Amino acid sequence: MSDQIVYAGIDIGGTNIKFGLFDSEGKILFKEQRPTMAEKGPTPLMHLVTNIAERLMYFAAEENYPVKWVGVGSPGAVDHKTGKVIGPCPNIEGWRGMEIGAIMNDRLNMPVFVDNEVNAMALAEARFGAAIGARSVVCVTVGTGVGGAVIIDGKVVHGFSSSAGELGHMTIDVNGPKCACGNNGCIEALCSSQTIIGNTKRLLKKELTPIFNDLLDGSIGNLTAKKVFTAARKGDEIANQVVVEAATYLGVGLAGIVNLLNPEVVVIGGGITDGGAGFVETVTREIKRRAFDSAVEKLTVAKAALGNDAGFMGAGLLGDVKK
Ligand SMILES: [Zn+2]
Fold first, then answer.
1. Domain range enclosing 39
2. Among 51, 113, 233, 287, which lies 20 to 30 A Cα-Cα from 172?
3. Residue 306 Cα to ligand 1 middle (Å)
4. Helix (H) or strand (E) holding 78
5. What's the pLDDT tens digit per position in 191-235?
6. Residue 270 belongs to a domain
7. How far apart are the CA of 243 and the centre of ligand 1, in A?
8. Does 1 fall in a domain?
9. How far is the CA of 178 from the centre of ligand 1 (A)?
10. 37 and 174 share a domain?
11. Which residue, among 159, 100, 44, has the nearest Cα to 315 in the 3D structure?
12. Structural domain tally of the chain?
């Protein structure tokens, strides 16, 4: 172990902060999570993150783990050169503008690398997960929002001002529903969990189908995206229609991305993909149907493999990429 490197990563989520240590084979040596408590404000949250990093370093020292830097994944666009949050973070009020890199570097007296959480996740999936060994990877996460990341030749594409990869906000339907970003018909507005819930409610307006009636104890107020997927798996036609529509829109968007970037692997992650019901299969079919043959012949479309560990593991890898 002593001649090996040990990675330390912290993943700041809207609900939980996940953190841990792992080796170069991807073996997790330690992991834990704490509630983010975003409602307490950005300064207490920054204290918590710094405190977690110090505890990780202290633990690594006790175990003689050779940790050389700390990596942090954060929501929002991040200037990866300075470690400052430069984009809005709807789940953590006041987080935009936080100088994560500078503050932690000062406190820990060691290198600190910071990047967007989906960029980090993509790195982890490319190193240890669904896109293992691939040099060109597009990663999309579908949940309350739709996040994206692009890796080309083993490096995260940050763009000119650290804002690249936001494929959730590609317009698919100019006359489509309003998106949280202010535009209309973005991928996010057409296939997020909120959209899936909204579309199901609209179609169930007259009355609940027997399957939904069972699942929701007779009340539409109990509807969640997870229940829509459960209903689809049980054969409910409305649920199926909603899931297929969302997956189709995502596939349409990703087909364009595949034509543009010709990745080796497209990784689909986020809460929605756990629902099953053929979501990932429909996305795959649409990509392969719509993108150029030369771009899809050897393309792999895969479900994310690392689950909740991808964020902190990818964060830990950030320094490796920088070297
Ligand atoms: Zn949008």
1. 6-129+308-322
2. 233
3. 27
4. strand 78-79
5. 999 999 999 999 998 789 999 999 999 889 899 999 999 999 999
6. yes
7. 20
8. no
9. 8
10. no
11. 100
12. 2
